[in-house]
Every structure is written in structure tokens, then in C-alpha cells.
Design brief:
The chain is α/β, with parallel strands linked by helices. Helices cover 51% and strands 18% of the residues. Helix 3 links the parallel strand 4 and strand 5. Keywords: Oxidoreductase.
């Protein structure tokens, strides 16, 4: 099996490195494709290559997903899949442009530097190629679980957008304190803030734009800030 990975950033490179077949990388930045190829014993190809592959995987930023699927799907002989992170629009685009293809949407719920981990899977039209890719990901130590595009995108509003907003808000509101003062809770929040802010801010911004949720966190914080003792106790129980 040979696979074209479109988008040779951290996640695209990680994905290509999990595959047992031959992997080619295409990226608007040729250096990225060459770097990914070197890291995973693959090869770099032009972003407008005329080659065709058993499968094409789109590992592009969220806003580029639908256009990238339409642009590159003709390079896929058998299967098309994505790693973009928003499944509803991606699955719809793959159905529209590749109705006869095997189709699968994947969302690794971790950054490439923290691999392996859990991967959400929408097997929209399964077949031997997508099954083989799933086997490769499992063999690399990842745990795959199936969902629907609708359930995934609804869940991401909480597990990504609201979570990131809450952690970043803590980071903005907190002050530096001596290590001895930290409680178990504050220490964990500080560690989370450090982890979130060590990533790519553009990626986090795209997640917020795609799923929303920051407004919900802000409104909840206002409810807590404005609460008297009785109301606070009620909010505490509500959160519980």
C-alpha cells in the first residue's frame, strides 16, 4: 500500500511514520515535505503531483480541510481520509467528492509529541485500505475507538474548546507563586497551562473558531464571580 500525506506538519509526519507501506508527503512548503520524508524514510512529492496513490490522507489545518479534500481526492485510487480535527465538514466533503472511495476520518486526541494515544475514528466507508491503516495505527501503540461525526464534533466543544479556554483563562488570571504554596489542584492547573501554551497558538485558535465554547466558560466565570454564598453553593452543586 502506498499513501500520500498532504500536509507535512507534526501530525502528518507522525501519521506517516505509523504506516507500514510506502509514504509520500506533499506540502505547500517543500522543506516541510522533505523534512517529513527524511524523518520517516518516506519521500517528498510536489503538491500538484500527477501520481496516484492507494490512499490520500489530508493532514491540513481545519479551515483548509474541505478545499484540500476536493483538490487532492483524484490522487486517491481507493481511499481518502483526514486528520483535520473537525469531522462533520470533512466527512461531508469526502462523501461528496469520493462517493466510491473508502472513507475514514481520524482525530488523534493528543499532539504528535505525546503519541501514542487515543484516536477517534469515523469509518464512513470501510474497506481493506482503511482497515490496514487502522491496523498500523494500533500496532504503533494507539487505541482507536469508533464514533460518529456528530458525536465527535459535539464532544470537542467540551474536551477541546471549553477545556482550552478554561486553562488559558487560568494562565492569564494567575500569578507566579513559590512552589511551596501550590495545592494539588493549583499545581495540576499550572502544569496544564504550561502544556497548552507549549503548543502552536494557531492550532488552538482554529479549534476555538471551529467549536466555540469560550463564551460558555466566560459566562460561567461571571456567574461564580457575582455569586453570594448561597448562590455559590448552588453553583458548586451544579458543577458537581
Amino acid at each position: 500500500m502506498n499513501v500520500l500525506v498532504v500536509g507535512a506538519g507534526e501530525m502528518g509526519t507522525w501519521f506517516g511514520g505509523c504506516l507500514s507501506g510506502s509514504v509520500a508527503y506533499a506540502d505547500r512548503n517543500k522543506t516541510n515535505a522533505e523534512r517529513a520524508a527524511t524523518a520517516t524514510d518516506g519521500r517528498a512529492v510536489a503538491v500538484d503531483t500527477d501520481e496516484r496513490f492507494d490512499a490520500v490522507c489530508l493532514a491540513v489545518p481545519i479551515p483548509a480541510a474541505e478545499v484540500a479534500i476536493a483538490t487532492h481526492i483524484d490522487r486517491a485510487r481507493r481511499a481518502v481520509l483526514d486528520l483535520t480535527g473537525v469531522m462533520g465538514p470533512a466527512v461531508a466533503a469526502m462523501r461528496e467528492h469520493g462517493p466510491d472511495h473508502e472513507r475514514m476520518s481520524l482525530h488523534p486526541l493528543f499532539s504528535a509529541r505525546h503519541a501514542p494515544g487515543r484516536i477517534a475514528v469515523v469509518p464512513d466507508a470501510s474497506g481493506p485500505v482503511t482497515d490496514g491503516i487502522r491496523d498500523d495505527l494500533s500496532a504503533d501503540g494507539n487505541t482507536l475507538f469508533e464514533t460518529t461525526a456528530e458525536e465527535h464534533d459535539r464532544s470537542m466543544a467540551t474536551v477541546q474548546a471549553r477545556t482550552h479556554a478554561a486553562v488559558l483563562a487560568f494562565g492569564l488570571a494567575s500569578e507566579t507563586v513559590r512552589e511551596e504554596f501550590h495545592t494539588p489542584v493549583s499545581k495540576q492547573l499550572s502544569v496544564l497551562a504550561e502544556r497548552v501554551t507549549s503548543g502552536n497558538p494557531r492550532v488552538y485558535a482554529e479549534i476555538q473558531e471551529a467549536f466555540g465554547g469560550a463564551e460558555d466558560v466566560a459566562q460561567a466565570a461571571v456567574r461564580i464571580a457575582d455569586a453570594d454564598e448561597e448562590t455559590f453553593e448552588a453553583l458548586y452543586q451544579e458543577a458537581k
